[in-house]
Write a structure and sequence with these properties.
The protein has 11 helices and no strands. The protein has 266 residues and is mainly α. The protein folds into 2 domains: 208 residues, Heme oxygenase-like (Heme Oxygenase, Chain A), CATH 1.20.910; 33 residues. The longest helix is centred in the C-terminal third of the chain and has 31 residues. It is globular and about 70 Å long. The relative contact order is 0.15. Pfam families: Heme_oxygenase. This is Heme oxygenase. It catalyses: heme b + 3 reduced [NADPH--hemoprotein reductase] + 3 O2 = biliverdin IXalpha + CO + Fe(2+) + 3 oxidized [NADPH--hemoprotein reductase] + 3 H2O + H(+).
């Protein structure tokens, strides 16, 4: 009489063990494993690139440090892992041409931190190309997440600085200098979901050693990202400019208060 219940209980125990493993995905594992270093990286980006919101030189230099990394991935990672619709090399070049001029490549030199990044990617490519998936996942999801937030903040800051001059706000048209973060006629939500699903499908048959290697490499992604972000130039100049503007406004307020008090006494 109790045999069926015992059998059902055993089935439930097996399902409790199997379901977490079935629902486990590589992208989720990489995301959880890098949660802390990701927070540190976000803090660095916010502290460093916050000045890029109303400074095109800082923004352009931020694009420049990641240009070679995305280019490398798009030239070396197969399209079943990194579909063409996500490629950004041309968009990087369009934006850099807008900010730095048509001849920007003639004066361009890869900086040391970026070269170190590329050397590591080349080493991975020779050792085990599948480890590049860690870079593909974190960099492109970063572009589709934090990159979108930064771009929106920059658009708002630019509109504020321009005192809301008349501009076309047409989502079908890409504003000059914003090609990188623009995906016309595509849902960012769907792009992110499809990207995660694709990587999870590709990695579904990876053994535990390879999955662990990808998780370990995920930490390296943020370490290298942080190094090239630190090399972004123009922040110090913008900080000084902001400080001068703040002091100027403060002095203006103090002087206005002084005049008000003088007039009141009279």
């Amino acid at each position: 009489m109790f045999a069926p219940f015992k059998f059902i209980a055993r089935i439930v125990k097996v399902l409790v063990i199997l379901i977490p493993n079935m629902s486990s995905s590589l992208t989720k594992e990489m995301r959880i494993a890098t949660r802390e270093i990701h927070k540190l990286s976000d803090a660095l980006v916010n502290a460093k690139l916050a000045f890029a919101l109303n400074n095109s030189e800082v923004w352009a230099d931020g694009l420049l440090v990641f240009y070679e990394v995305f280019k490398f991935l798009e030239e070396n990672v197969p399209q079943d892992i990194l579909p063409v619709e996500y490629h950004r090399t041309q968009q990087f070049e369009n934006d850099l041409e807008f900010y730095k001029g048509n001849d920007w490549k003639n004066e361009y030199k890869i900086r040391e931190s970026v070269q170190k990044y590329l050397s590591h990617l080349n080493e991975i490519q020779e050792r085990n190309p599948r480890l590049l998936i860690a870079y593909v996942y974190h960099l492109y999801m970063g572009l589709l997440s934090g990159g979108q937030i930064l771009a929106k903040k920059r658009r708002i800051a630019n509109k504020f600085m321009q005192k809301f001059n008349e501009q076309k706000d047409d989502t079908d048209e890409i504003a000059p200098g914003s090609h990188l973060t623009s995906f016309p006629n595509k849902s960012i939500f769907e792009l992110k979901n499809n990207f995660r699903q694709n990587i999870d499908e590709v990695s579904s048959d990876f053994n535990e050693n390879l999955r662990q290697a990808l998780i370990d490499e995920s930490h390296k992604v943020f370490e290298l990202n942080n190094e090239i972000i630190k090399s972004v130039e123009g922040v110090e100049e913008q900080l000084k400019k902001n400080l001068r503007n703040f002091i100027g406004c403060l002095l203006l307020v103090i002087f206005s208060l002084y005049l008000f008090v003088k007039m009141w006494k009279v």
